[in-house]
């Protein structure tokens, strides 16, 4: 197990944006609908997690990788019906990934399409919600549990367009900034255009948040992902950082090496105290040995925050 470093940890958690409770629409997300009698088996052979044995009350967090094991997209995958799977992902990678996945269909009885305009996608924070990667019917849609953020339960809610989950339990008023802050503080980064093909799953700790199965059969990049896990080849991991306003794709430097970056921001959001928070993929050696700076070796100082979950050694 890699232990979260305790050097230069921030003494406090950044404040969440105001009103970290309720419901908001998520225009940055979309849905790929995969339909046909082979939809589940087709995706089982393409993604990092098992869909063939998915319990009826669960969803999967998973990725689609290239041949080198680098993630092209991440999904929350919901088997909506025996012949229909919804893949929720970032809109800025959706078209390219839908096209790429379609190239692997061959003789499988499955078809893929962008169904985003036919879906309502909302984020829910607080109240009674399913636990991470579980699902339940809620307000006429499907609530898919995510990792909590700062002790608050969270879920994605998906339904046909025109429906809404707004209720007394989840009132309107949650801002998109607040939702994005929760995404970062949960420590589970997705793949977006700025980071496509930048990471193997373990570089973002996805094996520790139920994003990878090492017991299923082959999928694109599977050999690289497995070798990285069992031969100890991962030298970069995901960490939480606080600092100034940040954005995905920015680089991080250590004070001990001005010539070469030691990491990249995978996901970022504003915090309620005027600064920012981010999930960063960093060289583990740099985290232990030096201070961290945004953009250049003498750039703004970044502070480590503790991860909200443990890194697993029982894969």
Description:
- With 315 residues, the protein is of the alpha+beta class.
- The chain has 2 domains: 22-175, Probable tRNA modification gtpase trme, domain 1 (Gyrase A, domain 2, 2-Layer Sandwich), CATH 3.30.1360; 193-305, Beta Barrel (Elongation Factor Tu (Ef-tu), domain 3), CATH 2.40.30.160.
- It has 5 helices and 16 strands.
- A 6-stranded antiparallel beta barrel has the order 11-14-13-12-15-16. A 5-stranded antiparallel β-sheet has the order 1-7-10-9-8. A 5-stranded antiparallel β-sheet has the order 3-4-5-2-6.
- The protein is globular and about 55 Å long.
- The relative contact order is 0.19.
Which tags fit this structure?
single chain, alpha+beta, Gyrase A, domain 2, 2 domains, 6-stranded antiparallel barrel, 5-stranded antiparallel sheet, disordered N terminus
Per CATH, the superfamily of the largest domain is Probable tRNA modification gtpase trme, domain 1
* Secondary-structure element string: EEHEEEHEEEEEHHEEEEHEE
Number of domains: 2
Helix content: 10-25%
Task: Please compute the radius of gyration using only Cα atoms.
Answer: 19 Å
Largest β-sheet summary: 6 strands, antiparallel, barrel
| Mass-distribution shape | globular
Terminal residue distance: 10 Å
CATH-defined topology of the largest domain: Gyrase A, domain 2
Record the strand order, biggest sheet: 11-14-13-12-15-16
For the secondary structure, the number of strands is 16
Low-confidence stretches: 1-9
CATH class annotation of the largest domain: Alpha Beta
Class per helix and strand makeup: alpha+beta
């Amino acid at each position: 197990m890699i232990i979260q470093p305790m050097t230069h940890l921030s003494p406090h958690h950044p404040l969440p944006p105001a009103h970290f409770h309720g419901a908001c629409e998520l225009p940055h997300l979309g849905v790929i609908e995969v339909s046909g009698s082979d939809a589940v088996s087709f995706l089982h052979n393409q993604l990092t997690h098992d869909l063939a044995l998915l319990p009826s009350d669960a969803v999967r967090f998973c990725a689609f990788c290239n041949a080198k094991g680098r993630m092209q997209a991440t999904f929350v995958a919901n088997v909506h019906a025996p012949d229909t799977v919804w893949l929720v992902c970032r809109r800025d990678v959706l078209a390219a990934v839908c096209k790429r996945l379609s190239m692997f269909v061959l003789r499988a009885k499955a078809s893929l399409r962008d169904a985003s305009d036919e879906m309502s996608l909302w984020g829910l924070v607080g109240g009674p919600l399913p636990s991470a990667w579980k699902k339940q019917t809620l307000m006429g849609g499907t609530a898919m549990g995510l990792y909590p953020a700062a002790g608050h339960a969270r879920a994605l809610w998906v339904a046909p367009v025109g429906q809404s989950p707004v209720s007394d339990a989840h009132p309107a008023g949650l801002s998109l900034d607040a939702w994005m802050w929760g995404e970062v503080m949960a420590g589970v980064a997705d793949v977006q255009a700025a980071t496509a093909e930048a990471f193997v799953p373990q570089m973002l700790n996805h094996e520790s948040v139920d994003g990878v199965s090492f017991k299923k059969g082959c999928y694109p990049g599977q050999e690289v992902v497995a070798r990285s896990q069992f031969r100890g080849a991962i030298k970069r991991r995901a960490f939480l950082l606080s600092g100034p306003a940040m954005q995905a794709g920015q680089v991080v430097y250590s004070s001990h090496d001005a010539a070469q970056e030691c990491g990249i921001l995978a996901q970022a959001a504003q915090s309620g105290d005027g600064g920012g928070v981010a999930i960063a993929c960093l060289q583990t050696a740099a985290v232990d040995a030096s201070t961290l700076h945004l953009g250049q070796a003498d750039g703004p100082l970044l502070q480590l925050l503790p991860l909200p979950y443990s890194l697993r050694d029982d894969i």
